[in-house]
Amino acid sequence: MSHLSTARVAQPVALVCLAIGLALLVFLGLIDYGYDDPFITYRYAQNLLRGHGFVYNVGSRVQSTTTPLYTLLLALLGRLWSDLPRLSNLIGALSLEAGALLLYLLGRRLGQPVTGVAAALLYAISPLLISTLGAETLFYTALALAAFFAYTTQRFDLAATFAALVALTRADGILVAVALGLHYLAFENKIPWRQAFIFVLIVVPWYGFAWLYFGSPLPTTLYTKQQQGAMLISDSFWQGLLQQLHRYGQVPLYRLHAVFMLLGMAWVIGARAWRWLPLLFWTALYVAAYVALGVSRYFWYYGPLAPAAALLTALGLTACLRWLARRWRRLRPCTPALLLLGALLLLAPEAGTLAYRLQHTDHRQTAYRKTGEWLAAHTPADASVGLLEVGIIGYYAQRPVIDFAGLIQPTVAGQMAAESTYEDTASWAVQTYRPDYVVVPNGWLPAMTQSDWFDTQYMPIAHIFAGGFGANPVHIYTQRK
Amino acid sequence: MRREIVLVWLVLAAGLIVVGYSTLERITMPVDGQPTHPEPVGQLMGSETVGQTFLSRYDGLNRIDVFLGAYARPNTQDVIFYLKTAPDAPADILTVAVNASAVQDYAYHAFTFPPIPDSAGQSYFFYLTSPSSESGDAITTWKQTTDLYPEGHMVQNGLIQVGDLDFQVHYQPTVLNRLVALLDRLAQDKPSIWGDKRLYVVLLGWVIGSAIWLLTRTAQEFLEDELP
Predict the structure, then answer these.
(1) Under an 8 A CB cutoff, do A347 and B4 touch?
(2) CB–CB of B221 and A334 under 8 A?
(3) Torsional sign, CA A326, A327, A333, A335
(4) What is the pLDDT of residues B50-61, one digit of tens each?
(5) Which chain B residue is nearest to residue A342, measuring alpha carbons?
(6) I need a labelling partner for A471 at 20 to 30 A (CA). Which of A317, A321, A341, B153 fits?
(7) Which tens digit of pLDDT belongs to each residue from A109-126?
(8) Predicted TM-score (pTM) of this structure
(9) 111-150 in B: which are within 8 Å (CB) of A?
């Protein structure tokens, strides 16, 4: 075996070793990491496991999870490991590193293995993605990358299958099929009827079932998040994107990412490297769709932008080095060292953010879990609970929930208007549904909890402390008899 | 070719230092202590002493914050902070004096001192006195009346009390301390082998080793295959 071919074999082996190590580190280090929203999905999966059907509140057929395939996957694997939050983090960690390997394979397939390695490294520890651990985002993004990789290898049926799975994981995943379909149409000059049929065959059963079961093929969360987005107190997806860019821009080494990303974009256009286009086009479609839908900003919406960001940065770095080697031939022997320098400088802020993430968890998570467990232990099984964040507390409480943010009861979302606040929707929901218990984190909803009407109807019954510095208690109120 | 290889390794070493620095920089030292305070202890004056025993988890103990109250008035006398190894230890390790006029009402006051190098795993006792203070011109500490801090207890006028002061223990954020803090966090609250810090040392070594292997292979491939 020649020196070069040894390197060719060693490279993927080293990458797989790194991916395994990172998957273990991310999973074990962040085994109890979580945030509120994914727990809504866990509750659906748990109800499926318990035979209550695809519901959040038992007996109420409302589709408040955006991710049917991921819910089904959790319910299926939940038979093997019933700790759904940790199971989801395991799926997430494996999906993250699988996505990195797919990005590498994509680069290798398109004749740029070094770009593939750089992109895979940036993706494997991307803070945008790791912050979404526990949700379906990492699984969704890995499936999308599998679709793009299958497409570049010209296995179009497989690409259509993966594209359909992305659409089942989240409805906006349909944009993967749109991006691939349009690319195929533009460069192959024909309509991919066969692949369209495969796509429809996989996707339609779920949407048909959802229509019959829930009364609508689309989750209510779309309407709710549009309503939330219309509230003046909410930031839109676009505003959130600008805030993310500003936040990253404050770290000097992340500005280097921006420079290489722009260079990468210029290279794709200048070199007419249209084979990279499907992934980039999908990302552009994704941003455009979220802006057009007018949904409110949530940090996990930005995770799927990571593959294109990593790829463009890597393309910019390698294109820049190739240009340097062509322009100054004497620099050629130094380019491997420059490549390493560039890659490590790009990885430095990401590694720092990963370390920070490994060390810090959201204080709310512990308080919410304790609150849910308190409700499960101290309230009747049919007692209803009013909440503003229904994920973690709802999952551990297993009580019927009235959601002040309108995800579980779309009628609450119907109260949202430009001038309204969550105080208004909470007050309306409490007065309309009269939940047996109301849960309010310290300092939240002061106008409602200090109002006369609330005081005459509810009284505090417990204060849950998470412990630790900076942690605020959660107050539980019960109806006055 | 030999020169290029040396250059690659030099850059790799420098780059890893940058990555290591930027990673460790983001690791913060945990703060130990007891964060709640339902009631004040009472005016600290004359021969009164109030303190707390605690366990230092890391080397480089260099600051203790005590939650103090000033009764919403200007106080004028000196408050003295003492640190020793135990309530009955004969000698103080250090003392820090502060005038009560510098004490903010209902807030933590930081008593800082040079780092104690071998403090990890050691028990300590801090206490406050203010001999020249009088009623109406004295500060107070705040306390928790139930025992929420199992590694120590409140001591008032030489007697052990049920409960703890509201206090924070801080450590010097050295490279080693940060690394140990990260490993502690990774192994925290995990059963059997998953709670063993050595597992995470091996895992981090695995990740760094594979990354170096991958990067050197990739650099070689870039030179041999991708450059014109």
Answers:
(1) no
(2) no
(3) negative
(4) 999 999 999 999
(5) B15
(6) B153
(7) 998 989 999 999 999 999
(8) 0.90
(9) 148
